[in-house]
DNA sequence: TTCGGAATTTTAAACGTTTGCAATTGGTCT
DNA sequence: AGACCAATTGCAAACGTTTAAAATTCCGAA
């Protein structure tokens, strides 16, 4: 199974194992001529070092771990694919591989993470989708194990490495845009799950509102559990069918905004004439759903690539304090937003 | 970093390392009382075996490898995410982890695969997206390394383990449906890349055509390089704007079918009144693009889960000959197909 | 009490690397 | 020629586990 060993290669070259090892590592103590001779032979015979042996002595696995939660059978969002692709891209230039541990249905994500860390399978981990408080981070911090989080804790005083998208800015931007288009009555479709980004995005909206200081501006928030479609639809309809309907509704992320568009269509509303809708993430379907959802590009793939780099730095102890990084989402204007309808339209 | 070692645990229990090792492995030669005592202590002290050491002696890594090609920056299809999720799900119950090696822009996929195999990082690999002839499979077969392929070679005489979706049946089914709706002039938007599924799907269509034995049936095939949008649009327009336009166009996969719908809309054609369109894969956008794309569910995630199981069997030598498996795609009727327009419509 | 053999445990080698330290080589200077 | 030093190479231990084989313990029978 395993190909040529160092010992065999050394035998062919008539030098010691140690010399070959050092030569391949580029050790200056080995004569240049020898280094070249060894490199040449290694190439010619196709020598590939055994990672297990290397790991055993060095203590480093050459792996980054990623604990993948298994979602319901009918739902995979694009996040996973984008994120994994980005991590791979970011790691490959450092010669590090990605390793993915799946969480079995019954078990907790934390228990898998713990196993990954303690078996020495990974030199560091990336932790996606951080909740308001997160036992995974707590564990990693306690154990002082290298990690980078994608997302933030609610408690901003805890120091750790994270990267997050700056949704405060994005939702502020969205508000300003819509306000300038004449909108005064806003709706936000949110989730009731304990995720930090929910607060961030709502805060972005409210801060932008406050900056205007316009007493006529209103904001209604409707929430439902994240993967509960029935409750989501109900929440949205509560927003659409109220007496004083918002003229602009923001979805916490695209899936919600798309559902808003569907329900609006069902209610006979024309978008963007009667209602403006804005989402966040820019999933593929956003471009296809008529009339085209205005949204923000979350840049998941870029973020993951960046996270990979940050984690490598952490592992190699190149970074001093905790590294934090905000990614600014990019506005993607499509056709689902427009000027506020004249007051008469609101019947 | 690495927690408790076997030696330390043995020290606490006042027995030899070997006894602890055997006890944890459930070796019957160890007294039941000892086994229980050891298990209890291991749990209590949180002992987690070091995988590198274990791998070094056993020769098994506990990893399945997946070599991930990096695509252009703007394009990630849902395949990757679904596939990785499915693999993870399929592997987790066997206590095996997934490891992903990314192919750097400049390097060949084969060279990465070779490295994965020869470094002993994986006990088996899964090879996605098989081409008509595939150097990766050739290498793995030569080396007699466990693998399962997703997709087939054009040459059906080579024996190896594969799983593929039965697109011959699916495209035959699509033809029959459309024929029964009165369609006689067919178009197929294909790719010019050397992928086996291109032949399979076209063959499914032609075989179903042949079965009807209707001399009035025509089929025009238009192809373009897979990721070349400009060429794809041109090929599609060649099909749409010809004198005797097809009344039904099939896309080799959904992206192509969706582009057909876009171009048809641009040409002022109404779907499905003037033109029926059918795709394959059932990507998310298929449901959102008006009027809703009729397609086939490729069941990538299920396939990947199944592949994981097959590979485990191969690794553990439970399967006799090469295992092969055809997954039947499921028809997903939406609104993009309908009765053939009356002959007068074709101007 | 002693012995044979089964039951249980221990010893020690092996897996393929890396690396501190010792040993050897080669060259230069006196 | 001898001595010294630098350059180069080799020796051997270590990493944490598994496992074949040897050693020990235990038990019941003679």
CATH architecture classification name of the largest domain in chain A: 3-Layer(aba) Sandwich
- Spell out the CATH superfamily of the largest domain in chain A: Response regulator
Largest interface: A-B, 56 and 56 residues
The arrangement of helices and strands of chain A along the chain is HHHHEHEHEHEEHEHEHEHEHEHEE
Describe this structure in words.
Two copies of one chain form a homodimer. With 347 residues, chain A is α/β, with parallel strands linked by helices. The first copy, chain A, folds into three domains: 6-49, 434 Repressor (Amino-terminal Domain); 63-164 and 301-327, Response regulator (Rossmann fold, 3-Layer(aba) Sandwich); 167-298 and 332-345, Response regulator (Rossmann fold). The first copy, chain A, has helices spanning 6-13, 17-25, 32-45, 51-58, 78-92, 109-118, 135-143, 167-180, 196-212, 229-240, 254-266, 284-288, 300-315, and strands spanning 63-69, 97-103, 124-127, 147-150, 162-165, 185-191, 218-224, 248-251, 276-278, 295-297, 324-327, 330-332. The model of chain A has no long low-confidence stretch (mean pLDDT 92). Chains A and B meet through helix 4, helix 5, strand 2 and helix 12 of A and helix 4, helix 5, strand 2, helix 6 and helix 12 of B. The first copy, chain A, binds a DNA duplex (30 and 30 nucleotides) through residues 2, 5-7, 15-19, 21-22, 25, 29-31, 34, 49-59.
List the helices and strands and how they pair.
2 copies of one chain form a homodimer.
Chain A: H1 6-13, H2 17-25, H3 32-45, H4 51-58, E1 63-69, H5 78-92, E2 97-103, H6 109-118, E3 124-127, H7 135-143, E4 147-150, E5 162-165, H8 167-180, E6 185-191, H9 196-212, E7 218-224, H10 229-240, E8 248-251, H11 254-266, E9 276-278, H12 284-288, E10 295-297, H13 300-315, E11 324-327, E12 330-332
Parallel strand pairs in A: 1-2, 1-3, 3-4, 4-5, 5-11, 6-7, 6-8, 8-9
Antiparallel strand pairs in A: 10-12
Helix pairs in contact in A: 1-2, 2-3, 5-13, 8-9, 10-11
The structure holds a DNA duplex (30 and 30 nucleotides).
């Amino acid at each position: 199974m395993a190909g040529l060993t160092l010992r065999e290669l050394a035998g062919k070259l008539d030098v010691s194992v140690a010399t070959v090892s050092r030569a391949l590592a580029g050790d200056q103590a080995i004569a240049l001529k020898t280094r070249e001779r060894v490199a040449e032979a290694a190439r010619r015979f196709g020598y590939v070092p055994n990672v297990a042996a290397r790991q055993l002595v060095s203590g480093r696995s050459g792996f980054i771990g990623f604990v993948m939660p298994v979602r319901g059978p009918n739902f995979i969002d694009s996040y996973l694919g984008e994120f994994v692709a980005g991590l791979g891209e970011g790691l490959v230039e450092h010669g590090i591989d990605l390793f993915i541990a799946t969480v079995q249905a019954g078990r907790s994500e934390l228990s898998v993470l713990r196993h990954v860390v303690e078996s020495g399978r990974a030199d560091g981990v990336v932790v996606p989708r951080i909740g308001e408080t997160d036992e995974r981070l707590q564990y990693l911090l306690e154990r002082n194990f290298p990690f980078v989080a994608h997302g933030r804790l609610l408690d901003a005083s805890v120091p750790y490495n994270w990267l997050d998208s700056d949704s405060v800015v994005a939702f502020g931007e969205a508000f300003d845009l819509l306000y300038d288009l004449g909108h005064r009555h806003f709706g936000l479709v949110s989730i009731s799950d304990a995720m930090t980004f929910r607060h961030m995005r709502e805060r972005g909206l409210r801060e932008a509102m406050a900056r205007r200081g316009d007493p006529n501006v209103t904001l209604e928030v409707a929430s439902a559990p994240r993967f509960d479609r029935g409750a989501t639809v109900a929440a949205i309809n509560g927003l659409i069918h109220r007496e004083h309907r918002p003229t602009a509704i923001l979805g916490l992320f695209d899936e919600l905004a798309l559902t808003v568009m569907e329900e609006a269509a069902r209610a006979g509303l024309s978008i963007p004439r009667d209602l403006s809708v804005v989402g966040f993430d820019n999933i593929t379907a956003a471009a296809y759903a008529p009339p085209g959802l205005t949204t923000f590009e979350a840049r998941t793939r870029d973020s993951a690539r960046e996270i990979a780099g940050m984690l490598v730095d952490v592992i190699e102890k190149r970074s001093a304090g905790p590294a934090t990084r905000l990614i600014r989402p990019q506005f993607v204007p499509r056709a689902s937003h427009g000027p506020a309808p004249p007051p008469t339209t609101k019947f």
